[in-house]
Amino acid sequence: PGPADSKDVPPEVATREAALAVQDDETSEQPVVLVIADNAAMRSLMEKTLKTQFRTIVANNENSGWEKAQAQVPDLVITDIETSQNFCEKLRDATITSHIPVVMLTANAEQENKAQGLQADADEYISKPFAPEELRQRVQNIIAQRENLHHDFNRQLAQPRDIFSSDPEIDFMDSLLEILEERYAEATFDADALTTARGLSRIQLHRKLKALTGKSTQEFLRDFKRTRSQQVLPADRTRIMGNR
């Protein structure tokens, strides 16, 4: 047999690395921005512009960007590659990345190119050259708008259809809430069990939930259990009083 593939990671190591990644993310207050640009100078400029306010990760092509988007589930993606439109559509079609806002850069300011970007469901369209402060401010505005969803959803924990306008987000939250309704009362049902039941990695579920609700998986599960217990207790008291 040949040498072991360097990509093969023992399960216990992968689990430990995933746990550390979640812990690092929970302790960091900076939103995560993925920058994808095939030009090294442009990558460097955007990373330098954003890194003081955002945790910035970079990729130099579509394949690398896709892998990092899937693994890290950033709060926002900025693309400056020839295949930006296709990449944006790819993000929208994947459950784990469908919610991520996308900023597309272009050297051409013509309306036709802007229309293509909007057709691909990009959230913002910035023409080059741009002022660094403009990029930073627009990224900040998009992330702030997304954070407003957290407050809305937390007021209506079991009503994702009243909060999210996108079908993938509604479907995702519906499936998660369905799992919780069925299993939250189990004594051993914790964040890891929820992650396994949803078929995602720890960091993927953590980042997706953080983006949609502002809570970690553990916080989301804790608050769901608390809400359900508060709804059950009054009913139990009524039943007890009726039996006297």
Automatic annotation (TrEMBL):
It comes from the Bacteria. Keywords: Phosphoprotein. The modification 4-aspartylphosphate is found at D80. The keyword Transit peptide does not apply. Transmembrane segments: none annotated. GO terms for molecular function: DNA-binding transcription factor activity; phosphorelay sensor kinase activity; sequence-specific DNA binding. Residues 32-143 form the Response regulatory domain. It holds the Pfam family Response_reg. Residues 174-244 form the HTH araC/xylS-type domain. Coiled coil: none annotated. The keyword Iron-sulfur does not apply. PANTHER family: HYBRID SIGNAL TRANSDUCTION HISTIDINE KINASE C, TWO-COMPONENT HISTIDINE KINASE. This is Response regulator. It comes from Dawidia soli.
